Amino acid sequence: MLVLLAFIIVFHITSAALLFIATIDNAWWVGEEFFADVWRVCVNNTNCTEIDASYKDYSTVQAVQATMILSTILCCIAFLIFVLQLFRLKQGERFVLTSIIQLMSCLCVMIAASIYTDRREDIHKNNAQLYSLTVDGRYGYSFILAWVAFAFTFISGLMYLILRKRK
């Protein structure tokens, strides 16, 4: 049982780390001359511009920012509640509250990545016009990590739902 508990804790911490990296790092959309995320756009690794209210599609970017931050916060809260429930729940009870919060985190990261996938072209047209760049590029590793974090938080949420406290 101790090995299972250690695996669950490591899995949850890995999920949180993936969410932090995907939220913070600047590699959601990369091209030959630029890389961009939901916070800023960098051209030639030197000219970085923050995305602010003057940005054309700012409300879409803001929705992605908010849901990624919320997902990261919910994942951390779920871990803290899991640790509290580990010592407070009676033997044989399930970690339902932890599971619900972790699945909400999963939903938030899915919403953020889905919005970005759907609106990516609109978001980066503004960049192309500002810097005389092509919109051509590819999804960066932060975007891929967001989808991996979605899978990890979903599996983690299901594990908590199924998990019972045993001796």
Automatic annotation (TrEMBL):
GO MF, one annotated term: protein kinase binding
For whether the record's keyword set contains Cytoplasm, the answer is: yes
* Keywords of the record: Cell membrane, Cytoplasm, Golgi apparatus, Membrane, Nucleus, Signal, Transmembrane, Transmembrane helix
**InterPro entries reported in the protein's UniProt record:** EMP-2 (IPR003933), PMP-22/EMP/MP20-like (IPR050579), PMP22/EMP/MP20/Claudin (IPR004031), PMP22_EMP_MP20 (IPR004032)
Q: Which family does it belong to?
A: Belongs to the PMP-22/EMP/MP20 family.
Phosphoprotein found in the keyword field: no
Superkingdom to which the source organism belongs = Eukaryota
> Quick one: where is this thing mainly located?
membrane
Q: Where are the transmembrane segments?
A: 63-83, 95-116, 139-163
Recorded GO cellular component terms are: apical plasma membrane; cell surface; cytoplasmic vesicle; Golgi membrane; membrane raft; nucleus; perinuclear region of cytoplasm
Q: What is this protein called?
A: Epithelial membrane protein 2
Record text on subunit structure and interactions? Interacts with PTK2; regulates PTK2 activation and localization. Interacts with ITGB3; regulates the levels of the heterodimer ITGA5-ITGB3 integrin surface expression. Interacts with P2RX7 (via C-terminus). Interacts with ITGB1; the interaction may be direct or indirect and ITGB1 has a heterodimer form.
Q: What topology in the membrane does the UniProt record assign?
A: Multi-pass membrane protein
Task: Give the protein's function.
Answer: Functions as a key regulator of cell membrane composition by regulating proteins surface expression. Also, plays a role in regulation of processes including cell migration, cell proliferation, cell contraction and cell adhesion.
Signal peptide span: 1-16
Q: Which GO terms describe its biological process?
A: actin filament organization; actin-mediated cell contraction; apoptotic process; bleb assembly; blood vessel endothelial cell migration; cell-matrix adhesion; early endosome to late endosome transport; embryo implantation
Q: Where in the cell is it found?
A: Apical cell membrane; Cytoplasm, Perinuclear region; Golgi apparatus membrane; Membrane raft
User: Pfam family example for this protein?
Assistant: PMP22_Claudin
